[in-house]
């Protein structure tokens, strides 16, 4: 017998002994199933091709296409029910509905992205807005040091809870913060230069925010929740739509979104090696930006 969806609520047993074995062998030779190699696969029946659900699913396409799964399969099953539950437990610490929901909400709120990344990118964004476009790296580095030293002096700041008074920060701690942020700025500029050389960013373009890293994973987390039975279809669908809406508010195009996702992934994992964490996403980006059936070429980003 062959067991389909073992351990899941829809487990099924199908005969595999002769004469059925010949039929299974023929299907195996066709190679129609996922290969775990980057490939654009689309459900022509049973998967959304247009509209808000399809848009939200396309926001998770980096990860899904990288593994050769159908990009528009909301009822994602990956390597099967038990393997998907194991993946969520080991990679995300998710073992229940409440844990899945908390992780999903954190990703949708972009709470997983590093706040230091957003400080550095937001500072450059503000400089570009105030001074009309291109920001020299030296100016960006100097501005980061000035802002951090000013903050270290203490005083009153406006927070969501109202006006809060902050204590002065010791000079040694302030200089350490400046060094960390300036090191990060160097990493960002090197990744952006490489992305320009690889055609992911256009000349003069830069990443405005790394929130795409969280939003792309939020789209996938919705699918993973459904495949592991941590949630029901309506909740997964609503989460996918929300990921798409937030992405459209933050970025201008699929290219912008992709560059931001890749930067976030590399800052998180790659450690300036330009290894597989980067190269794999270059391959996926090119697939999604060139193949005729790509959702990025058929679904408006905004």
Radius of gyration: 22 Å
Share of helix, binned: 55-70%
Given the helix and strand composition, which structural class is it?
A: mainly alpha
Biggest sheet: strand arrangement: 1-2
Count of discrete domains: 2
Shape: elongated
Low-pLDDT regions = none
Instruction: Determine the N-to-C terminus distance.
Output: 48 Å
Would you give an account of this structure?
This protein is mainly α and 302 residues long. The protein has 2 domains: 54-111 and 210-273 and 286-302, no CATH class; 115-197, no CATH class. Helix content is 59%, strand content 5%. A two-stranded antiparallel ribbon has the order 1-2. Helix 11 runs antiparallel to helix 12 (276-290). The protein starts with a strand and ends with a helix.
Can you lay out the helices and strands and say which pair or pack?
Elements: E1 2-4, E2 12-14, H1 20-30, H2 52-58, H3 61-66, H4 81-92, H5 97-108, H6 115-131, H7 137-152, E3 155-159, E4 162-166, H8 171-197, H9 211-227, H10 233-250, H11 254-269, H12 276-290, H13 295-298
Helix pairs in contact: 2-10, 5-9, 7-8, 8-11, 9-10, 9-11, 11-12
């Amino acid at each position: 017998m062959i067991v389909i969806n073992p351990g899941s609520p829809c487990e099924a047993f199908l005969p595999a002994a002769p004469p059925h074995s010949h039929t299974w062998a023929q299907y195996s030779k066709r190679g129609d199933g996922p290969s775990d190699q980057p490939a654009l696969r689309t459900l022509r029946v049973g998967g959304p091709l247009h509209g808000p659900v399809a848009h939200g699913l396309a926001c998770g396409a980096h990860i899904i296409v990288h593994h050769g799964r159908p990009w528009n399969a909301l009822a994602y099953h990956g390597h099967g029910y038990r393997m998907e539950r194991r993946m969520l437990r080991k990679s995300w610490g998710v073992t229940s509905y409440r844990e899945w929901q908390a992780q999903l909400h954190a990703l949708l709120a972009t709470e997983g992205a590093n706040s230091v990344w957003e400080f550095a990118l937001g500072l450059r964004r503000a400089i570009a807005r105030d001074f009309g476009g291109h920001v020299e790296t030296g100016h960006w580095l100097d501005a980061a040091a000035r802002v951090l030293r000013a903050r270290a002096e203490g005083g009153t700041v406006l927070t969501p809870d109202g006006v809060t008074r902050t204590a002065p920060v010791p000079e040694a701690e302030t200089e350490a913060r400046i060094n960390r942020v300036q090191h990060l700025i160097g990493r960002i500029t090197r990744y952006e230069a490489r992305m320009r050389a690889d055609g992911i960013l256009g000349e003069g373009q830069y990443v405005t925010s790394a929130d795409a890293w969280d939003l792309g994973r939020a789209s996938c987390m919705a699918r993973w929740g459904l495949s592991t039975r941590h949630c029901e279809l309506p909740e997964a669908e609503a989460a996918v739509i929300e990921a798409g809406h937030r992405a459209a508010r933050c970025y201008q195009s699929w290219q912008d979104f992709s560059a931001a996702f890749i930067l976030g992934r590399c800052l998180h994992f790659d450690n300036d090696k330009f290894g597989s964490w980067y190269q794999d996403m270059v391959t996926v980006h090119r697939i999604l930006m060139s193949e005729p059936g790509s959702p990025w070429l058929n679904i408006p980003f905004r």
